[in-house]
Amino acid sequence: MPSEFFFSTINEDLNSLNYNLQNMVGAKHPILHASSEHLFSAGGKRIRPAIILLVSQATLNNYIIHTEHKRLAEITEIIHTASLVHDDIIDEGLTRRGVTTVHSIFSTKIAVLAGDFLFAQSSWYLANLHNLEVVKTISKVIIDFAEGEIRQGLIIFDSTMSMNQYVEKSFYKTASLIAASCKSASILSQVILEQQNACYLYGKHLGLAFQIIDDILDIIGSIKSLGKPSSSDLKNGNLTAPILFALTESQELQNLINKEFEDKEDIKCAILLIYNSKGLQKAKDLAEEHIQIAINSMQFAADYKIYKNLVLMGQYILERLY
Q1: Cα three-residue angle 231-88-32, rounded to 5 degrees
Q2: Per-residue pLDDT for 96 more than 60?
Q3: How far, in Å, CA of 52 to CA of 107, rounded?
Q4: How far is CA 242 from CA 9, 160, 218, 247, in A?
Q5: Phi then psi for 230, rounded to 5 degrees?
């Protein structure tokens, strides 16, 4: 797998990140500490920190990642994890990254507090980077998370939802954090504004591709590959790229969605209809388009040896399907 190479260049930093995350959530209250530690011990692929570390290398002359870039990667993962805690409450999910969700182990009240605590922790570490532009850039993400959740809640089981609405929702829920973090990494590297904006686009379109692949895996993937039970988006009425593409071909699928899968076999029937449509392939094509836009946006780094790692990250996101 080509991705093994680029991970090896940042592997030491990712290992340090895993260690630091469990130490950064040092809540004084034992339940808050236990719930936070439980999340980070679950691991995950750490895609977001990996992207930030690669962008940091691409915007530094000597490729040596600075301490503040590493801290930014940690902050990003804390923010992402906080959002997952709240997502799981809303979705009533029982597992995440192969382990039981916080609200299932403790309670909904504790999970809400744990998520809030992690957001607060990330804000404190963010302030300690002593860079106002980075603070402003990352802070906007918290607003975007809330916006994404509200938008999603308003359009569940809405078979008239457009692809533009889906992409916009995916930006708020996933791509916003990656885009803002990539731009923040470049701000810390003190590159010119044009390159900062290029890094933002790289993160945005990688983030959109990542979400689309996630949505494909929700239809075809196992619990192990996705980190949560498959088809959960479909069951919850969250209409994603493969479903929207399949809807253009199938009136029967539209009928099932409109009646919100009221019969026992409706979900299985809907999945079969999506499988037999061109929805999955069209969604994959859309993800590839976003990855190509991401790679093209980083042309300013094309002469650097680190550029191939930025390309390989895009390939790695696609490889999650195989």
Answers
A1: 155
A2: no
A3: 33
A4: 34, 14, 10, 9
A5: -70, 160
What is the predicted pLDDT for the residue at 3?
54
CA atoms of 48 and 78, how far apart (whole Å): 11
**pLDDT the model gives residue 184:** 98
Q: What are phi and psi of 100, to 5 degrees?
A: -65, 140
In 3D space, the residue among 300, 315, 316, 296 whose CA is nearest the CA of residue 189 turns out to be 300
- 205: nearest Cα among 286, 322, 316: 286
pLDDT of residue 16: 86
Compute and round to an integer the Cα radius of gyration of the chain. Answer: 19
Q: Between 317 and 9, whose confidence is greater? A: 317
| Half-sphere CA count of 118, side-chain side, radius 13 A | 32
User: Which of 2, 10, 1, 8 lies closest to 54, judged by CA?
Assistant: 10
Place of tokens 């002469």: 303
CA torsion angle for 273, 168, 201, 174 (degrees, to 10)? -70
Look up residue 65 and give its DSSP letter. Answer: P
Q: Residue 277: what residue type?
A: S
- Position 203, amino acid: G
Region for 97 from its dihedrals, namely left if φ exceeds 0, alpha if ψ lies in -120 to 50, beta otherwise = left
Sign of CA pseudo-dihedral 314, 63, 197, 173: positive
- Per-residue pLDDT, 36: 59
SS3 99: strand
Using an 8 Å Cβ cutoff, are 189 and 62 in contact? no
What do you get for the CA distance between the two ends of the chain, in Å?
Answer: 11
* Dist. CA 175–CA 205, nearest whole Å: 7
Do 245 and 277 form a contact (C-beta atoms < 8 A)?
yes
Mean of the pLDDT values across residues 86-104?
62
Domain 3-319: state its class.
Answer: mainly alpha
Every domain of the chain and the residues it spans? 3-319
